[in-house]
Amino acid sequence: MMKKLKSGTPFVYDENDRVVGIRDPHTGTDTDLVTAVTSPGGGIEVCVGDISATIPELTAAQSAATLAAAEAAFAPQLVTGYYYVKVGGTRTSGKSTADDWSYANCYGSIQAAINQPWNRWDEIVLNDEVHTTNAKLNFSGSAALSGATIRIRSKSRNPETCVISSSAVASVLDLNKADASYGITWERIKFTRSSTLTLSGGSLFAALTTPTLDILFDGCVIENFVANIDGVYTYSFIYAGSGTVERELRFRDCVFRNIQSSAQQGWAFMSGGSVGTSVVFERTKFFDIVHTQTNATETFLGGMGLSGAAGLSFIDCEIDGLHYSHPATTTISVSGFVRAQCPLTVSGLVAKDVTLTGGNAGCFLLRAERTYQIENLRVENSYSQPGPAVNSVGGAILAYGTQAVGTVRDAEIDGCVSDYGPLVYASQGGALDAKSIRAYNSSARVEGIIYSGGWGDMSVIGFLLVDCVAGLEPRYGLTDFAGGIYAHLHADGDRAKTVIVKHGLLINTVTQAVDGAATLHLQNNNTAFSMTVTVENVAADATAAQHALMTVGAGAAMTVSGTGNAFRGGSSTALSSAAGTLTGSLGEIADLAQIGDGTLTAATIDRDLARAWTEAMADAT
To answer: Of the chain's two ends, which shows fewer C-beta atoms within 10 Å, N or C?
Structure first.
């Protein structure tokens, strides 16, 4: 058999161009392929120029250790014991005999089973029936050793047939024990309350304070909870704990439905949060969540914040019907569903019918005050409504404060309304890096479907605004509120600001403010720091006297560059007002005839094609 080498490779080929061996580059010795890959050891040295890397030979002990580790990692773990629970059960100690659901073999209450000395791989199994309790289920009396884990599940694994109905004065679940840490899984159970919570010092559903390990609610339904607190709603619906314990609280494939609460002050859905706590909602749905604040002079903190926690995440979740209201008609702080005072991650969230009213209601859904990563977000028919003429910020997404630095990718709103920035808003030093974002049939009562205030940098690449409008309610005696995009460097900003706007389409997007720019308004009144702007490949088809306005206050400076832009009306629609120093321009602006076939509207546009376009533009150079 004829053997040959190919330049640049150590492989030996036969006359049919098949690899049959490997040639040692130092000795010239050929080794057949079977021997090379099956013999013990036999590290192969690969040389590229002066760089060499040797695949080390594994000793017999190393091979055995690797195999043992793999076997341990993938070994099936069998249930080691059961504690059956059945209404009327008479068992008082010990494990239940498997598959025996007689009264003598079952505990009569969930609490009695929790108090047993269970250990890892044990399960507490609840008979398919309604389990009523007039006291919170707690772990303080459990005989299990610290570090133990337990799964508490329904017999059939159908939450509709296995119900825990509580009339506890405080929380339904208290997952704490001061001198022990437990890992707890609740699987396929429905939780309800038969009484209204009135205790301000209690959680409506569950509380974590002292050390616990990971807590998982898997496939559970939590519905029909009511709280009426004449005071501060300190521990809210769920209290996620305090301290520095590292743990994860996860809701996977769960449903929250018909959760109603009222209080003078506090968090509505989840309070607390420790340095080590991570909270994850995975494939979880929120339906008909309502909270009313009753004290008009106190702030409303929001739905969930988790100050200092390790993180808050939403993965493929859904919201349909979430309403928060505050009675204030003046400038009282009112926050929406998420006010993340910890890192925020969203990877798939559909939200419909979300409302926030009263005080300075602005961001109704996602407010990030720390690092954030938001992708695959859809928001429909949602709005915020502050008090009359009260200044507010944001709508669906708000990056607030200098620690709010992150990214938004593939976000879309449809039929949403807020005073400023219903799609995205960056404020008070918050930075915005948004790609592939879209807004349909949405309104900014005052200004900017996309809004960058404060002094944080903004980059928006790959965007589409269709049938959007701003300038509906002019404020402060001004008449120049922008339609599509507004960006400024705040006069109190302590740094220079960079704004990048690229690859965008604005279809029938306008402002009703008589002196406003339909497409873009850029402004700097900061006399200490400059603002640098790049606008490229933006097309806008609205009929407007002005599409772009650049305003520079006395003593301020702005540098602008642009290319590839096209507005209906051409360069004559790009205006400037510069008492300060304005350097550069948006470049030659083409006179746009139409976008597409000229008939695209929010009702007729192909949303999948629109998303594909913004995704492609987001990655364009």
So the answer is: C
Are 118 and 146 spatial neighbours (Cβ–Cβ below 8 Å)?
A: no
Cα 209 off chain centre by:
24
**Residue that wins the pLDDT comparison between 59 and 531:** 531
Query: How sure is the predictor about 64, in pLDDT bands with cuts at 50, 70 and 90?
Result: confident
Residue 521 to residue 267: CA distance in whole angstroms: 36
84: number of Cβ within 10 Å: 24
Q: Which helix (H) or strand (E) holds 617?
A: helix 607-618
State the Cα torsion 444-448-450-455 to the nearest 10°: -130
Residues 198, 171 contacting (CB under 8 angstroms): no
Q: Which two tokens stand for residue 14?
A: 């036969």
What residue type is assigned to position 133 of the chain?
T
Fill in the amino acid letter for 569: G
Instruction: Return the number of other C-beta atoms located less than 10 Å from residue 439's C-beta.
Output: 31
Start-to-end C-alpha separation, the chain: 52
Answer positive or negative: Cα dihedral of 55, 57, 61, 67.
positive
pLDDT at site 58: 72
Question: Residue ranges of the domains in the chain?
Answer: 1-51, 394-621
Tell me the pLDDT tens digit for each residue of 324-376. Answer: 999 999 999 999 999 999 999 999 999 999 999 999 999 999 999 999 999 99
CA 133 to chain centre: 35
pLDDT, tens digit, 9 for 90 and up, residues 209-236 = 777 899 999 999 999 999 999 999 888 9
pLDDT in the model for residue 6? 53
Contact between 351 and 319 under an 8 Å Cβ cutoff? The reply is yes
Q: d(Cα 580, Cα 491) in Å, to the nearest integer?
A: 13
Question: What six digits make up the tokens of 424?
Answer: 């995205």
Per residue in 22-38, pLDDT (tens digit) is 666 666 677 664 454 44
- Hey, is 111 helix, strand or coil? helix
